[in-house]
Write a structure and sequence with these properties.
The complex is a heterodimer of chains A (117) and B (114). Chain A is 0% helix and 51% strand. Chain A is mainly beta. In chain A, strands 2, 5, 6, 10, 11 and 12 form a six-stranded mixed beta sheet that branches. The mean pLDDT of chain A is 93. Chain B has no helices and eleven strands. In chain B, 0% of the residues lie in helices and 56% in strands. With 114 residues, chain B is mostly beta strands. Chain B has strands at residues 3-7, 10-13, 19-26, 33-38, 44-52, 55-58, 65-70, 73-78, 87-94, 103-105, 109-113. The relative contact order of chain B is 0.32. The chains are: A mainly beta (117), B mainly beta (114). The A-B interface holds A 33, 35, 37, 42-47, 50, 52, 91, 95, 100-105, 107-110 and B 32, 34, 41-46, 49, 51, 57, 59, 88, 90, 92, 94, 98-108, 110.
């Protein structure tokens, strides 16, 4: 069964430093998509970055990059030059190809990131 | 551009009362729509999804139901709320990029059942 695991319940990072949030996944499918979302205290889920299983290069979106290691089934989020506004809960999610029509996502339990000034 | 609206933002209801949460999407047609629930400090659990008007799929057995009376409207309902229905409810729609299938979320409704 497909599963997303985020092993870090909480993380601290100093402002302007980089931080890596871990995500491992389990799937028997060869085609799948991986997503990261940010949830600030207001509650809204904000899409950050996407990685397809066949993408050869790691995805990047501004200060966000995804360290995709397919053989290890890991999709870690790297945030560079952390800002105070990055303090939030971060969720890793996966969609299997078989659910491409429905678009169903499976979410991890999340990691709370706190950026210290 | 596409936007998604949810209301109300906050709701406090007594046990046994009915519930109706509404979600509407603008700027797109025939989107896939989703209802999720999030317990405090936890991940999201998919409750229902819909690929079109009148088409509802339930992911978990529960006290809730969903309906899609119009193309861009998705409603979450209950006839009698339970204490365990408390949580944060999020509606989402699937974007038009078929290669990525990114879901975009509304601002959510915080429901407290007392």
């Amino acid at each position: 069964a497909q599963k997303i695991t985020q092993t870090q319940p909480g993380m601290f990072v100093q402002e302007k430093e980089a931080v890596t949030l871990d995500c491992t996944y389990d799937t028997s499918d060869q085609s799948y998509g991986l997503f990261w979302y940010k949830q600030p205290s207001s509650g809204e889920m904000i899409f950050l970055i996407y990685q397809g299983s066949y993408d050869e290069q790691n995805a990047t979106e501004g200060r966000y990059s995804l360290n995709f290691q397919k053989a290890r089934k890991s999709a870690n989020l790297v945030i560079s030059a952390s800002q105070l506004g990055d303090s939030a809960m971060y969720f890793c999610a996966m969609r299997e190809w078989g659910s491409s029509n429905t678009g169903k996502l499976i979410f991890g339990q999340g990691t709370t990131l706190q950026v210290k000034p | 551009s596409q936007t998604i609206h949810q209301w109300p933002a906050t709701l406090v209801q007594p046990v046994g009362s009915p519930l109706s949460l509404e979600c509407t999407v603008e700027g797109t047609s025939n989107p896939n729509l989703y209802w999720y629930r999030q317990a405090a400090g936890r991940g999201l659990q998919l409750l229902f999804y819909s690929v079109g008007i009148g088409q509802i799929s339930s992911e978990v057995p529960q006290n809730l139901s969903a309906s899609r009376p119009q193309d861009r409207q998705f409603i979450l309902s209950s006839k009698k709320l339970l204490l365990s229905d408390s949580g944060f409810y999020l509606c989402a729609w699937k974007g038009d990029d078929l290669a990525k299938n990114i879901q975009y979320f509304g601002a959510g409704t915080r429901l407290s059942v007392l």
